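User: quick one, fold this
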Amino acid sequence: MTAFKILKKIGRVKSTHNKLHFFCTALCFFLLIGHATFAFTVNTTQGSGVVGSPFNYAVTLTGATAVGGNNQISYSYKVNGPLPGGLSISATNGAITGTPTGTYNATISVTVTENEVLDGIFPQTVGSASAVIPIIITQSPPVITSGSTINGVINAAIVTYTITASGNPTSYSIGGGSGALPPGLILTGATISGIPTAAGTYTVTIGATNSIGTGTATLTIIIAAPVPVVKPGTVTGISGTPITSYTITATSNPTSYSASSLPPGLSLSGAVISGTPTISGTYNTIISATNAGNETGTATLTFIFGPAAPVIAAQTANGAVASVFNYAITATNNPTSYALQLGNLLPAGLTLNTATGIISGKPTAAGTFTFNITATNGSVSAPATITIIITPPVPVIQGNAVANAVAGNTFSYTFTAPNTSPNTYNATGLPAGLTIVSTTMGLISGTPSETGVFNVTLSATSAGITGTQRLTIIIPFANGTLNYVSKFTTPISLGNSLIYDDGSFVGIEPGGTGIPTKYGSYLLQVNGGAIFTQVVVKAFNNWPDFVFEDNYKLTPLAEIEQYINEHKHLPGVPSVADVKKDGMDVGVNQAVLLQKIEELTLYIIDQNKQIEAQKAATEEQNKKIAQLQNQNDQLQQLKKEVNDLELLLQKK
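Assistant:
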């Protein structure tokens, strides 16, 4: 009868006394009849193991009741006494596990107890069985379990390496026919440590020994040379001048060197960079050094090259007081600025344009002035001596260009040079009867005794400087002073024109009835138009080739402009009023026009020189722009190479 059915019967008993009686009866039934018996034994199979190696032994039973079931059968295990060192037993399944720490050759006493819980209510011990189980733990040669590789770098302490092994080694060794430890490393106990001094791959045999024997393993030690540390630097120089050779220096005994994007004109040989830079600018070059272990270190080497210093040759310029002065300093290598040396002064009235090197202005004092000047384009030139010779102003003569006189009549003419003082005046080429009566006033007077057109040179001298001007004096015959002698005895058919010939000149006067008036010493006079197939003027005095003489000084254009604004005609050319009044001498006029053409030619030549100089300066500027563009392209390429190098280093 199950406990459940018995309890139901108890529940149907009415009286308390009867219930108690019935419960006691049922309890006795459980104790006497419901108690289970056991019939299992503990197996005594030997357990074996090795010191230092995992041990696993299961206590087994024969005749045991299946665990679980209605009565909830279970077993518990215990050892009666100590187990070998390092081992333990599971109380629920009898597994003896662990890692033995020493040898053992003996038995252990194990007790197994069967337990049950009747109908899930009444727990009880069914019974126990004990047995003696032999356990043998032996010792074996050590088995090395530590890593097989050590990595290190020359001159840097390695991470300490410890030899680990099973079997409780008592000593450790290096050798066994293999190579020795790398120089600088030592074995202390089970530990390899130290600072390696030589690169390479070393294969050694490590050993661990106990009382049974020695276990060995192969250990590979890889000692790399450290990554070279390259020293960065800066090299300065001048374009066009050889640099001082630069040697790349680095640690870790490099075997090769390289340099990317060297400035134009430089090259690398071994570890030495040398050459002559051809383009000024700043260059950042990546230099590298690689050692025998194929380790590469890099650094930046900066090159700063200024342009070749300008060269200024000694120069001399000339000018005059109160005259416009304009002189450009000439220098090579594209200067960007100019400067007077400290303590040097320009002639009074002149200034230096420090950007263009042009000295300009109007000098206020005469003399010879010497000063030193430098030019800069990033590099400073050596000082050059500039000499400016300022002469006193050239006297500018003022007065009518044409004067009319009458033979036998009193004549007076005054000319001045108001821009200079004091002046000494003179006149050459005067007709007979006229003289310069005052050299301090510029006065010509007298009574001309000859007729003709006379080209007189007026001059004014101040401080040794002479200015000249042309004066044309026209002296015709006075009416009635000529004797008339007809050379024609019969009329000449010339229409109504009168032909006159007195032996000294021939006059033709259309429609004339009287004696033509003779002018000067001309042999032929025509009162009206004339046409010739050829006119030749010979023995013309003072033909204007003097314009091309070395001592001929062109009047500054600014002064010519001022004269034109005031007089409305060119200097030395008759005004419209003069032509209306006195006529125009064709020969003189041709000479004057030729003089102006020759002067204009000189002005054009000078202007062309300035244009060519400006053209050369522009070409130099374009070259500089091209150089800057080239440098910019190189910088962009260098930037790309640096970025590529950074990506490569990141990948490493």
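User: anything notable?
Assistant: Confidence is low (pLDDT under 50) at residues 1-16, 26-35, 479-495.
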